[in-house]
């Protein structure tokens, strides 16, 4: 990984203020709503649509939401693509960018965002582009794996790979405890990486990935388009399903590289909610320090769907400052129930 950049909308929404001034009234008929918001692990979120103002006069139809998604996905991605290109691919080196893979599950439009980004940054006309849509919180791994395949086929190229999500445009008038959980967790963010084939130099280097889909739990998580907005369902049993599977799942990622859980210093656990971090940490016997990047991203950004795991990797790089040769495991979970992971060497 040659470069990594993250971005978020400028509007910061404090969790306590949002609950007291908006959500308390909205979820007045949900007895556990305050407990849900207070116990979410979220301190603040960056949101393109601040719920305290965006929904003050009602709930827009799907059209305005999709236009807002396109506007804000492009705004965040201009920042992240520009940053990684300026950092690692100035001048003529940009001509080596032969692949762009972009993911988002919070909206649709054509031309897709990757086309606009390629145009604005004057990337090659023969650029290979892939848009990964509607795969949920684990989509960044599908984005990265597509880029890895492209680099394996054309090792002289560079690849841009990232995502952006605007979850805030999908607030809906459904007054249930399940939707209170969704409204308490999700925020907006984007991230972009610039990748090259490994030349044996310093890290971060992605050594491998591992995927499992547990189709017996397909009912546990869903994401559908409805008349007013996208609707997410999230079973409270998801942390329990993950806890049952996480240890053998991680072992299958690490075994081909001769590693075990105890050999991994750094961990990025997608914060689908605080219980997921708790349960995964307990099953893998991780320390509070190892879980700190995941908890910090949840506190500062909420769950930003596919962008979240790259926010956590950025936090590990900036704050944990891994030593050369140390390893990290990154993991995220989405509909299916799908479990994705990657092994990184710094």
From TrEMBL:
InterPro entries documented for this protein = Chalcone/stilbene_synt_C, Chalcone/stilbene_synt_N, Polyketide_synthase_type-III, Thiolase-like
Instruction: Quote one Gene Ontology molecular function term.
Output: acyltransferase activity, transferring groups other than amino-acyl groups
Gene3D superfamilies attached to this UniProt entry:
3.40.47.10
Q: Which UniProt keywords apply?
A: Transferase
Q: Name one GO biological process term.
A: polyketide biosynthetic process
Per its UniProt entry, which superkingdom is the organism in?
Answer: Bacteria
Q: Which Pfam families match?
A: Chal_sti_synt_C (PF02797), Chal_sti_synt_N (PF00195)
Q: Which residues of this protein are catalytic?
A: 137 (acyl-thioester intermediate)
* Every Chalcone/stilbene synthase N-terminal domain range: 1-198
In this chain the Chalcone/stilbene synthase C-terminal domain maps to: 216-345
Query: Which protein family is it in?
Result: Belongs to the thiolase-like superfamily. Chalcone/stilbene synthases family.
Q: What is this protein called?
A: Type III polyketide synthase
